[in-house]
Amino acid sequence: MLKVFGFVKRHPRLTHDEYRTGHVGYHNSFGRRLNNIRGYLLNVASNRPISDSLGAEAVKKLTTNEPADFDDGWDGWGQLMFDTMEDYVSAKTPAIDRAGPNGLETDTMVARVGDDFDQLYAGSPFQFHVDEHIAMPVRRPERKLFKLAQFVKRPASLEPELFRAYVTGRYATLAATMPGLRGMIVNVRTNLDVMSKFFAQDSEGFTPEGIARRETFYSGWDALIEYWFDGPEQFSSARNSRDFEQLPELESAFFSAVFYREVDETVAVLPKRNTPPPFYHR
Amino acid sequence: MFKVFAFLKRNTTLLTHDEYRAGHVGYHCGQSRRLRNIRGYLVNVWSNTPFAQRIGTELHQQITRNEPQNFLDWWDGFPEVYFDSQEAWVHATDVEPTRATADGLINDPDWSLADGPFLFDPVPDRPGEFKPCHLLMHEHILVPVEREEVKSFKLMQFFKNKPNVSNDQVLADYAAAAAQLPGLNGCILNFRDPDQAAAMQGFYGDDTWGLSNEGIDHRSRFCDMWDGAIEYHFTQVNDFISARRFLHDELSRLESRFFDSLWYVEVDENLVVMPNRNPAPNYYFR
């Protein structure tokens, strides 16, 4: 599938919790109606620091070269899934999904995704395509899970193709056996342009300042690994277990930076990876 | 949790079944997913393919008993909504600030459920009203639901108990057996509350159609057909077929003992808000 991430920083007039309300509430209510969307998740940075989730000592042990002020760059990120690039670039068009006095009518607000970008965000989203590798298919129970984002950076000495091969190979294969894991997906950021045809040409993201802001954010990491557990103790316990003592060795060899964040996941559209049905479905 | 099944028939003058899907799952859910303190929200729309066609006429005849005629004429879809309490449910339409603007977070002035009479079966002599049939359900989780990242196969099994059979017996014997079907990704038994107005009162005004004599009679006739419904989640239809064949003799024996009628409806489940059975976090979450 075509999978696109969009990291966003909240508008300065909003607190983090106000931002999450505006994004999860109003904004997602339009985003989930994008034409032909096949999956839509929103991950909001947890109010709980990762050192509280996993323990300060564990975080110190597991972290290498975390970029300074990393959290200044974002409050959340959306994940959009489409079948094709054509579906993605045409998603922001009016949707025929509103019942009115003449039957089903067109709603132009879907094309503008609620038209709240300038009030919800500080600048354009950092929008990029990821090459995903499903190390363990996700199965979501009917409760809020502990979702962990592991940001990793490719060493300059390692070719991008080898980095992808190694992180999705021995590393992910071993990590995916952690007890209690409910899903694990490796997402490697690519250079495929998913900005130009999705955002207006006068967007902040296309200004020199916007490009610099995005490149600074990208410079700290190259891949994002999503983990789903019932609770943080399952991840901590696994990482302390002898069964996984090889993971730090692999991290030393394959990653020049590793750091973690907890996020609160909203499933705005449950990802559907099978063939779409011939009717409106979310 | 306070769980409501809301059976809704489309506005047949304006919409086909597939147009109804788009209007309900699209715009309408874009509004209703913001109901205050909602803890879970699924919209089940009956499948376009008849269930007998999906599983074969022979098996369908074997597992169905006295299916009411025209059951699907009563509804096109039914949302399942979850709240922590009845109080939360009756205050669900109290608008809260969810829209970022130049003035910060505000109540969305465009938030509205006014599409209702265009989307659902309108009441002819009551402009602005449609015919709701909201029913309080008491659920028993037989197999906790886990959803894969695919469109899965969801089946509703409606049943009416024999006069001398209690819900407790169904729960103790039949549900225990049904939960053994191999390949289940989830199984929830729901009994309808004996008070057919339990999910209507407080949520709708006393002077609305749903609480009028006509609305009460409509609900009563619909409820006469069934006492409860089991939700089965499988990955594919063939998983149900093989599972049913595996336990067919035992289930058939229990079904003839417990149920006057029993039938199935395949539904396309749209997940609008993932049910969260944990305590609610202290921030806005869906």
Structure, explained:
The complex is a heterodimer of chains A (282) and B (286). Chain A has 282 residues and is of the alpha+beta class. Chain A has a single domain, classed as Alpha-Beta Plaits (2-Layer Sandwich). Chain A contains nine helices and eleven strands. The longest helix of chain A has 16 residues, at 16-31. Chain A is globular, with a radius of gyration of 19 Å. The two termini of chain A are 16 Å apart. The mean pLDDT of chain A is 97. Chain B is an alpha+beta fold and 286 residues long. Chain B has a single domain, classed as Alpha-Beta Plaits (2-Layer Sandwich). In chain B, 29% of the residues lie in helices and 28% in strands. Chain B contains eight helices and eleven strands. Chain B has helices at residues 17-32, 51-55, 57-63, 86-90, 116-119, 167-178, 213-223, 237-258; strands spanning 2-7, 40-46, 77-83, 97-101, 104-107, 133-143, 146-148, 153-161, 186-192, 228-234, 259-273. In chain B, the strands form two sheets. Chain B has an eight-stranded antiparallel β-barrel, surrounded by four helices. In chain B, strands 4-5 form a two-stranded antiparallel sheet. In chain B, strand 4 and strand 5 (104-107) form a beta hairpin. In chain B, helix 6 runs antiparallel to helix 8 (237-258). The longest helix of chain B is centred in the C-terminal third of the chain and has 22 residues, at 237-258. Chain B is globular, with a radius of gyration of 19 Å. At the A-B interface, helix 1, strand 4, strand 5, strand 7 and strand 11 of A face helix 1, strand 4, strand 7 and strand 11 of B.
Radius of gyration of chain A: 19 Å
Mean pLDDT of chain A: 97
At CATH level 2, the architecture of chain A is 2-Layer Sandwich
CATH class of chain A: Alpha Beta
Helicity range of the residues of chain A? 25-40%
**What characterizes the major β-sheet of chain B?**
8 strands, antiparallel, barrel
CA(first)-CA(last) distance of chain A: 16 Å
Distance between the termini of chain B: 16 Å
> Rg of chain B, please?
19 Å
Please count the beta strands of chain A (DSSP E, at least 2 residues each): 11
Indicate the multimeric state: heterodimer
Separate helix tally of chain A:
9
Overall structural domain count of chain B:
1
Give, in order, the helices and strands of chain A.
Answer: EHEHHEHEEHEEEHEHEHHE
Assign the structural class of chain A, choosing from mainly alpha, mainly beta, alpha/beta, alpha+beta, or little secondary structure. Answer: alpha+beta
